[in-house]
Amino acid sequence: MSTEGLDTFPKLLLDRARRFGDRPAIREKDYGIWQTWTWRQVEEEVRMLACGLAARGFKRGDKLAIIGDNRPRLYWSMAAAQALGGVPVPAYQDAVAEEMQYVLDHAGAHFALAEDQEQVDKVLEVKDRCPELTEIIFDDSRGMRHYDRTHLHDFEDIQAQGRKFDQDNPDFYAGEIEKGSGSDVAIILYTSGTTGTPKGVILTHDNVLITAQNSVDRDGLTVTDESLAYLPMAWVGDHIFSYGQAYAAGFCVSCPESGATVMQDMREIGPTYFFAPPRIFENLLTTVMIRMEDAAFIKRKMFHYFMNLARRSGIKILDGKPVSVIDRTLYAVGKLFVYGPLKNTLGMSRVRLAYTAGEAIGPDIFDFYRSLGINVKQLYGQTEAAVFVTMHPDGEVKPDTVGTPAPQVEIEIADNGEVLYRSPGVFQSYYKDPEATAKTKTEDGWVHTGDAGFFDDDGHLKIIDRAKDVGKLDDGSMFAPKYLENKLKFFPQIREAVTFGSERAHTAAFINIDLDAVGNWAERRHISYASYQELAANSEVYDMVQECVEKVNQDLASDSKLAPSQIKRFLILHKELDADDGELTRTRKVRRSHVAEKYSTLIDALYSDQDHCYIETEVTFEDGRKGSISADLAIREVKHS
Question: Mind listing the pLDDT tens digit for each residue in 87-125?
């Protein structure tokens, strides 16, 4: 569905309402019931909201902060702000008040739209430290009855004001939309702050729309497709998949009832187009394998037989490659008894296209889904690129690459191995940070990704690690920590890993176990535990994790470049790495420098002859209180060649 001549999202929305106004545009599950809005109804909702914002003084160039889970009204607010020439600024809904304050203040938001009481409370807590913030709007009124309403407004009241404003100024809305152009700022998205303070990435309508349209054309997405919006609205991936591509192709986006019901809601909706970071695919597979361990003997045997068949033939069938008649027949039987029910359990019965990105996904996990007939592909992208840098083409899907350049994307590999790109999606600048912009983006539009990679013989890009993180052991051999960590995380028992080795004699690792997977394993072996800390310290758990680490070492031993990076010593951390403790970003990326500083005592112990190390650590509880936990951690030696 072409967007030619429609260079802003509000213009595109008017077109979609005219051309297929009765088709579903967005759904939301509320109190167990799915509610659907057509494109015509969405345009009306956006119009009333935009006029209501105008009535409250919102004007061209103003910023609207958006805080909450995936909700239709929050997506509508993006288009409403853009219709007035304003700029939406989504914030991570799980951010603590201080993190939210930075975004609100740095962006200079005049208005904030918060989903519910929880988000309103966070905004009110920091409002006095955000001098430009004047108006707060809320979607869900539960618990808000006794709040001071001087600068606090119900979403429906704003729309009611908008109806009156629209009646009094019938040409205003269309006139404001007409003033917009593709070069206008469409959105500011803040990076997760992996290496420091989050940066506000300015993307124009052209950046988002051209990139979205190119990806829609490449993968053949149409108005009949369905997707599920469940990832943070502040993340560029959700913005492209749930907003940019939805408007470009005209397909329907569904919002789950809550984070806890995503899988059930997904089974009910049956999306045809799905995106998830590797961790989601890993968690789903872990759940499946845990269930199978608890299943009856015959069911387990049938599952393993047909999964072995799927690994042998399923991917070939998906890619249209030759398969023997016997295997094709057996695969059809497996589809009836195993693959079909399994895909239904995963909510992927109708998925014809799925993507993963953000981190490397384990080849075994990747192949598992493709062997079921689910067309999972990888892409490589950045906020600064409006997502798409490379994509897997159909028929050329390789688990160890991130695909070929996306449409209209140019890629170069610098002398130091860093990946650079140039495309229509390249961001305008970092908000209020010309120095950082100049470091990242050259005058002729090339962007430094900070990632090291190379092209294979088939023209596919392989990402090794962050360029700054690629180091050398003290013998001069390559040390690529992210590559090692991803190999460790291929095991469902390992949730997170952090490796060390640059300028050292050998490689060592911190391990976080996966509480669900290891907890289920422990229960089957009648191993009792009362907490994550107790389970992580169990010697049998250490034995199991050591087996995983040694398998990684066996794989590394066959790679001439990385064989010296085999892990010599490891420990299992006494707590899960947590964003609230500053150890992870809100998108669950390890903040490596912070972890190294916080746990320097443990790192020193790994590079000594100690077999235990005592540590006391400050932690943040769910209610925001601070506390501390202590442990005497075991350190294990690992077989390596």
Answer: 999 999 999 999 999 999 999 999 999 999 999 999 999
Q: How far apart are CA 475 and CA 628, in angstroms?
A: 39
Strand partners, 66: 90, 113
The set of residues, in sequence order, having a beta carbon less than 8 Å from that of 470 and lying 6+ positions away, is 417, 452, 464, 478, 479, 480
State how far the Cα of 530 lies from the Cα of 603, in Å rounded to an integer: 27
Residue 565 is which amino acid?
S
Per-residue pLDDT band at 3 (split at 50, 70, 90): low
- Asked whether the predicted pLDDT for residue 1 surpasses 60, the reply is no
Give CA–CA dist 43/316, Å, rounded: 44
Q: How far apart are CA 12 and CA 492, in angstroms?
A: 43
Q: Which CATH number does 9-212+227-259 carry?
A: 3.40.50.12780
d(CA 16, CA 3) in angstroms, rounded, equals: 10
Q: What is the pLDDT of residues 177-234, one digit of tens each?
A: 999 999 999 999 998 765 568 999 999 999 999 999 999 999 999 999 999 999 999 9
**With helix as H, strand as E and coil as C, how does 457-503 read?**
CCCCEEEEEECCCCEECCCCCEECHHHHHHHHHCCCCEEEEEEECCC
Phi and psi at 375, nearest 5°, equal -80, 75
Spelled out in words, what is the top-level CATH class assigned to the domain 471-637? alpha beta
Distance CA 431, CA 610 (A): 48
Indicate the residue type of 480.
Answer: A
Q: Are the C-beta atoms of 323 and 243 separated by less than 8 Å? A: no
Domains 9-212+227-259 and 278-395+409-466 share a fold: yes
The CA R_g of the chain, rounded to the nearest whole Å, is: 25
Q: Where are the strands (E) in 63-205, listed by range?
A: 63-67, 87-91, 111-114, 135-138, 152-154, 185-190, 200-204
pLDDT reported for residue 334: 95
* Superfamily covering domain 278-395+409-466: ANL, N-terminal domain (3.40.50.12780)
Taken in order 195, 199, 203, 208, is the CA torsion positive or negative? positive
**Sequence spans of domains, the chain:** 9-212+227-259, 278-395+409-466, 471-637
Distance CA 442, CA 496 (A): 35
